[in-house]
Specification:
By secondary structure, the protein is of the alpha/beta class. It has 17 helices and 15 strands. It binds zinc ion (ZN).
C-alpha cells in the first residue's frame, strides 16, 4: 500500500467506513493493527494479496463529452487545424447525446481508477453547457466541470453577454462533490476583455478557471506574430477583426500574454508544452497550476517543436503540475481499436518509462497535485486514519518481482481496479 506522502506498507490494510458523504478511513496499518480496531469485526473483508493499493487517481484535464468520437489517428505533420476541425464536426449537439457521451467517459474513467476529474464541458452552439456538470454530479466522480466558451474579435461582445447571463442565473455552483468552473478555451480563441471578465466573474463567484495554454506551434505563431493557420481559421469563420492585433502580434509567449490575468483566480493551465524561463517564473509567481497531458503532447509531437516538456523544472520551481489525459481522441487504442480506460496511470507509466521519473513523484502528480489543481483537499488522496478518502485503487503485480512495487506498477501494464470511490456523496 503506497501513497505520495510516504505511506509504504507491505502488507498493508485499510478499514473504511461507508455511509452518507465521503467514505472515511478508520484505520491504516498492517493487517494485525487494522484487525485490532473495534469496528474491524463487523467489516466486510476485501483482499487483493497480489496488488499494490494506491489512492484514487485525479485526471486534471479531460473532455468526457468527446468520448463518443473514440481515438482518431493523426499525422502531426498535418498540423493542429485539420484535427480541431474534425473534432468540431464530431461534437454532439443534443442534450441526450452529450449526456450519453459523458456517461461513457465516466465509465472509462472509473475503469482507469479515476475518482476526480477536471472535465471540459464543450459549448453547444453559442451556449454554455451544463449537461456534463449534471452527469458528473450523478456519478461517483468528484471534481470540476469547466464550462468552455470562445470569444475573440467579432465574437467578444456575445461571449461577454453569455458570461454576464451566467453571473445572473447561476443557481448551483457545487453539486454532489462536483464544482462548476469556467474555461476560456485558449488565448487564440478568447480575447482580452473576455479573459478579464471570466477571471473577475470566477473570483467573485469562487469558481475555478482553466484554459488551454502554450499547446501548439500554431498558437505560438498566432500569439507572437498574429499570423499562421489560427489567424486564417478566424478569418474563414468571419471572426477576425483588427482589434485582435492589440492582443496578439506583440511578440509575447502565450504565458506572457496571460500574465495579467493569471493569479487573479485559481487557474489551471492545460498542456504548457512551450515555456521559456520567464514563463516558468510567471507560472510560479502567479500560483498557476499546470495539467500536463503527456500522451496528448506526444500525439501532437510537441517535443519535436518545443523540446522535452519542462514539467520537472516546473515542479522544482514550486509549480503544482498535475496530470491529464486530454480527450479520448488523442489516446492510443487497444488492439481491438477501442480505448478500454481513461487513466492518468497510463500517463504516469509513459513518464516513468520515457524519462525515468521517480515513481512517488509521479504518484503525487496523479493524486495530490491533481487534487490541488482542482481545488479538492489533497489529504483525501492519501492514506491517513480518521479522515475522508476519495478512493482506493488496486493494481495487480507479479509478487515475485524484486523491484520496488510502485516502480513495478509503472513498468508493467496491470489493470487498475477501483475498489472504492466517493459514490454515496
Ligand atoms: Zn483539452
Amino acid at each position: 500500500m503506497i501513497d505520495a506522502t510516504g505511506t509504504r506498507l507491505r502488507p498493508g490494510a485499510l478499514l473504511v467506513e461507508r455511509g452518507r458523504g465521503m467514505p472515511r478511513l478508520l484505520a491504516v496499518g498492517t493487517p494485525a493493527e487494522v484487525a485490532s480496531h473495534p469496528a474491524a469485526n463487523a467489516a466486510r473483508l476485501v483482499q487483493r494479496p497480489d496488488s499494490v493499493l494506491i489512492p484514487g487517481l485525479v485526471n486534471a484535464h479531460t473532455h468526457l463529452d468527446l468520448t463518443h468520437v473514440g481515438p482518431l489517428a493523426h499525422d502531426p505533420d498535418e498540423g493542429f487545424m485539420p484535427w480541431i476541425e474534425r473534432v468540431r464536426d464530431a461534437r454532439e449537439a443534443e442534450v441526450e447525446s452529450i449526456a450519453r457521451s459523458v456517461g461513457e467517459g465516466v465509465e472509462l474513467s472509473l475503469a482507469g481508477g479515476t475518482v476526480a476529474v477536471g472535465d471540459i464541458a464543450g459549448s453547444v452552439g453559442e451556449g454554455l453547457n451544463t449537461t456534463p456538470f449534471h452527469v458528473l454530479a450523478a456519478s461517483p466522480l468528484l471534481g470540476v466541470s469547466y464550462l468552455e466558451f470562445f470569444g475573440i474579435g467579432r465574437g467578444e461582445p456575445a461571449a461577454m453577454e453569455r458570461l454576464h447571463a451566467l453571473e445572473a442565473g447561476l443557481a448551483e455552483r457545487v453539486l454532489a462533490g462536483v464544482c462548476l468552473g469556467l474555461q476560456p478555451h485558449a488565448p487564440y480563441s478568447v480575447g482580452p476583455a473576455v479573459f478579464r471578465d471570466a477571471v473577475r466573474l470566477a473570483a467573485g463567484l469562487d469558481l475555478p478557471v482553466a484554459t488551454h495554454l502554450a499547446e501548439t506551434p500554431e498558437e505560438i505563431a498566432f500569439v507572437a506574430d498574429a499570423r499562421g493557420p489560427q489567424r486564417a481559421f478566424l478569418e474563414r469563420l468571419g471572426i477576425w477583426d483588427d482589434s485582435i492585433l492589440g492582443w496578439t502580434g506583440r511578440g509575447e509567449t502565450p504565458v506572457g500574454l496571460l500574465a495579467p490575468v493569471l493569479g487573479q483566480a485559481p487557474m489551471l493551465a492545460a498542456h504548457v508544452n512551450a515555456a521559456n524561463d520567464a514563463d516558468l517564473q510567471i507560472l510560479a509567481k502567479t500560483g498557476t497550476r499546470v495539467a500536463y497531458c503527456p500522451r496528448a503532447s506526444a500525439y501532437f509531437a510537441a517535443q519535436a517543436s518545443f523540446g522535452p516538456h519542462r514539467y520537472r523544472e516546473m515542479l522544482d520551481a514550486g509549480i503544482v503540475v498535475a496530470l491529464g489525459t486530454d480527450s479520448i481522441v488523442v489516446l492510443p487504442p487497444d488492439a481491438d481499436g477501442a480505448v478500454s480506460r481513461i487513466s492518468v496511470l497510463d500517463e504516469m507509466r509513459l513518464l516513468h518509462r520515457r524519462d525515468g521519473t521517480d515513481p512517488t513523484l509521479l504518484l503525487e502528480m496523479g493524486t495530490r497535485n491533481g487534487a490541488i489543481a482542482l481545488g479538492l483537499d489533497p489529504a483525501w488522496f492519501t492514506f491517513g486514519a480518521e479522515r475522508p478518502i476519495a478512493g482506493v485503487v488496486a493494481v495487480q503485480i507479479d509478487p515475485a518481482s524484486a523491484d520496488d512495487p510502485l516502480a513495478t506498477v509503472l513498468k508493467t501494464d496491470g489493470r487498475p481496479e477501483l475498489l472504492l470511490a466517493a459514490a454515496s456523496f
